Amino acid sequence: MTATTDRTAAGTPLQLKDIVKTIPKDCFEKNMTRAWLSVLLTLAATVVGYLGIIYLPWYCLPLTWIFTGTALTGWFVIGHDGGHRSFARRPWVNDLVGHIALMPLIYPFHPWRLLHDHHHLHTNKLEVDNAWDVWTPEAYEAAHPVVKLFYRAIRGRFWWIGSIFHWALLHFKLSNFSERDQGKVKLSIAVVVLFGAVVFPTLILTTGVWGFVKFWLMPWLVYHFWMSTFTIVHHTIPEIKFTPADQWSAGEAQLKGTVHCDYPKWVEILCHDINVHIPHHLSVAIPSYNLRRAHASVEENWGAVIHQRRFNWSLMKEIGDQCHLYDPETGYRTFASLRKSA
């Protein structure tokens, strides 16, 4: 056990800056060759996926959709690096790469970037964090019955559609953003609207409605499966704590409130290690291709307090069966526990 872990075990409050200092400095360095190689990898994987959709027999479509949708998730991760300014040194390059990478996903870059920055600033802060924010029993009971229905679905066995609602409800609403940011927000929304206005009718006119479903909708739904899965697993297991604002600590939240999860290797490669999430929360300045090296350091120094899992049905069942509502006094509660206490 290292000295840093000893201090944690002794109850000394964790300071985020002290945790970050334990990560090797070269993990923060941008390497443009590796950055553009990640783009080439995703481009190649996407081309292979679409060639499979076009030329393989129809009964191979489920496999080619899964592969292509996973490759499309790689585009999101590249845009994710652009949003955090960890792709390139120049802001305009990050913005350009971010818009291009997220455009086929109909994800407006600046709205996502601004809301995602809020998540990083307030990770696991109860009723403030905006990424899969877990509700308190009081908030759930006060919600409209239709809203309750959707919340129950995405906190249970329909977790895999959660990011679709997050995308649709938050990223196109101007009132979610300050007046100073609305110019950038409108630009990003215009980019994806223009993309859809040109590509979707063209796709339907040339390949029919089935072509739209086959070439865009099904891979897009697979992409959202991974987005929903990555996002909920990043911060949701029974051991993870959500803290009221007046008790919240950045060091505790970023180190102990995030889950490292191992997925099949092909998924990790196509998605550029987005699953290696703990060092990303310690510092968004770490490029995706340096996350594994940073995680090895985190594991060495803080292995006793971090959360690590493997993606499988047992994990998703545990999350879907137990992590429904959050009481700051007692932790997670299930929907069934509300009926019992009523």
Key features?
mainly alpha; 342 residues; 4 strands; two-stranded antiparallel sheet; two-stranded parallel ribbon; disordered N terminus
Order of helices and strands: HHHHHHHHHHHEHHHEHEEH
Oligomeric description of these chains: single chain
**How would you sum up the major sheet?**
2 strands, parallel
Give the CA-based shape: globular
Work out the helicity level: 55-70%
Give me the Rg, rounded: 20 Å
Helical segment count? 16
Low-pLDDT parts are 1-9
* First and last CA, distance: 46 Å
**What is the arithmetic mean of pLDDT?**
94
Structural class: mainly alpha
Spatial arrangement of strands, main beta sheet: 1-2
- How many domains? The number is 1
Total strand count, please?
4
Proportion of strand residues: under 5%
Walk me through what this model shows:
- 61% of the residues lie in helices and 4% in strands.
- It has 342 residues and is mainly alpha-helical.
- The chain has one domain.
- The protein has a two-stranded parallel sheet with strand order 1-2. It has a two-stranded antiparallel ribbon with strand order 3-4.
- β3 and β4 form a beta hairpin.
- The termini are far apart.
- The N terminus is likely disordered.
Write the layout of secondary structure elements.
Blueprint: H1 3-9, H2 16-20, H3 32-55, H4 61-83, H5 91-102, H6 109-121, H7 137-142, H8 145-154, H9 162-170, H10 182-235, H11 250-256, E1 259-262, H12 265-270, H13 278-282, H14 291-302, E2 307-310, H15 313-322, E3 325-327, E4 331-333, H16 335-341
Parallel strand pairs: 1-2
Antiparallel strand pairs: 3-4
Helix pairs in contact: 3-4, 4-5, 4-10
